[in-house]
Design a protein that fits this description.
about 475 residues, alpha+beta, Rossmann fold, Nuclear Transport Factor 2, Chain: A, 3 domains, nine-stranded mixed sheet, five-stranded antiparallel sheet, 14 helices, about 25% helix, globular
């Protein structure tokens, strides 16, 4: 394992931490924690497998899993063999788990703290997708999520993680998050604003996180955070819940941002304390009811989480002036939908009434029904799943649809052994001893869909998208 680089903590930063750290915590413990490598952790993706079944599946491995108190699906993980990356395991490639830092699971846990089932969720700063996939799993792929990412280079990564995890109820947008309050006022019953921040809490993962830190940069970031939280509040329906979170530690980006919102909007907003979120939450609880997680408390990244309730309507901002252009999709008729559903069912693909079929030229897409009222109000980069392309001889089913929609009891599933599954991820054609009986099948490993394939004689032609092909060593416990 590579040696952990020492973290340089500027004196002015340490002074800021002293000003906000509770008396019962030690600055020496804080500095020592920042110098330790971060514990690795994962979250089981319950869209693919239950926690109990996952634990049974990996029981024979050299994985020591310790439950994370605030996330029933989360575990710290320690492995004897560190030569192969956790991201190269079969279980990660097939979407059974997401490599996610433990503290970053807190905001979504707080968003769902009351056990509610939101219908329409906005994730304002979504990439790379850890929290979006966590939200989708807690929603069981029902309802809808608008996942926004301002950085164009990170939108592709966001989509790749959603696809790997079998998420089907998400629409992607690529905006400055400050537009949502005006563009989609009172449209979401739950909003996660995991705000861009100075990143003071992530030094255990990234020793260079503080290299550009300065009081001036913190003040500039805080200005943006105020505008983002203001926009988010306007996008929230009355009675809805918003979680504001950061992976930084100073009060300027945390307590002061929330206090600004409360001062600005008075009794339109209230804080819902998080002291009962999980056993031990009191250790990080502030007087206001926020969670201020210093890294030495739970041996994790630093984090801040606040849960807010919008109590009544507030004056909406002026509507934005922009042209959306013509929406290029049209909903399919009942007859066409039935034809496509029947063809998909023959392959083992299924969906319910929370998704509807739309078409663009020869493309067939599956959109979350809950998002239809937003069509024409904002420009989406991508909605739902691309299901298939229509041809004169039938349909060409898409990889992401197979990953999300393949039923566990499909008749055209063809289970691979570990050797063949590795060959699949290496992008090579397969030569099983006993080829599948059908010309088209869904190849699986550990009963999880890996993709769709065609049999050509005794060969299975590999159709894994080229950007998913892995060239390095894989960990399939041969």
């Amino acid at each position: 394992m590579a040696k952990f680089a020492a973290v340089v903590l500027p004196p002015v930063f340490l002074d800021a931490i002293r000003a906000v750290m509770p008396a019962e915590l030690s600055m020496d413990d804080f500095i020592a924690a920042c110098q330790r490598p971060l514990r690795r952790s994962l979250r089981v993706n319950t869209l693919k497998i239950s926690v109990a079944d996952f634990l049974t599946l990996v029981q024979a491995y050299d994985w020591r899993l310790e439950p994370i108190p605030w996330c029933a699906e989360g575990f710290w993980i320690d492995r004897e063999d560190e030569e192969l990356l956790l991201g190269s395991t079969a279980e990660h490639l097939s979407g059974l788990f997401y490599i996610q830092e433990a503290s970053s699971m807190l905001p979504v846990s707080a968003l769902f703290a009351d056990g509610g089932k939101p219908h329409r969720v906005l994730d304002i700063a979504a990439a790379p997708g850890s929290k979006t996939t966590q939200i989708a799993a807690l929603m069981n792929n029902q309802g809808s999520i608008v996942a926004n990412e301002y950085s164009s280079s990170r939108v592709k990564v966001l989509h790749a993680n959603l696809s790997r995890c079998g998420v089907k109820n998400v629409a992607l947008t690529h905006f400055d998050g400050r537009v949502f309050g005006a563009a989609l006022p009172e449209s979401f019953d739950a909003i996660l604003l995991d705000a861009p921040c100075s990143g003071e809490g992530v030094v255990r993962k990234d020793p260079d996180a503080m290299s550009n830190w300065s009081p001036e940069s913190v003040a500039e970031i805080a200005d943006t955070q105020r505008e983002l939280i203001d926009s988010a509040l306007h996008a929230l329906v009355p009675g809805g819940v918003m979680v504001y979170s950061t992976c930084t530690l100073n009060a300027q980006e945390n307590q002061q941002i929330v206090q600004w919102l409360l001062t600005t909007y008075g009794n339109a907003v209230s804080v819902e304390p998080l002291g009962e979120l999980f056993p031990g939450a009191q250790q990080a609880l502030t007087a206001e009811g926020f969670l201020h997680v210093f890294p030495q408390i739970y041996d994790s990244e630093g984090f801040f989480v606040a849960r807010l309730r919008k109590n009544h309507t507030i004056t909406p901002p002026a509507k934005p002036h922009y042209k959306l252009g013509k929406f290029p999709f049209t909903p399919l008729s009942g007859k066409e939908s039935a034809e496509i559903s029947q063809a998909a069912a023959a392959l083992g693909l299924a969906w319910d009434e929370t998704s509807q079929l739309w078409a663009r030229d020869k493309e067939i897409w599956l959109f979350p029904t809950e998002l239809e009222p937003l069509i024409g109000k904002v420009r989406f980069s991508r909605i739902g799943l691309k299901l298939a392309e229509r041809f004169s001889k039938g349909f060409r089913w898409q990889h992401e649809a197979v990953i999300a929609l393949a039923s566990a009891d499909g008749k055209l599933r063809f289970e691979l052994d570990a050797t063949l599954a590795q060959e699949w991820y290496h992008g090579r054609d397969l030569y099983p001893q006993q080829p599948p009986e059908c010309d088209e099948c869904i190849v699986t490993y550990q009963q999880q869909p890996l993709g769709i394939a065609k049999r050509i004689g005794s060969r299975i032609k590999n159709s894994l998208p080229r950007d998913l092909v892995r060239n390095g060593a894989l960990d399939f416990h041969l």
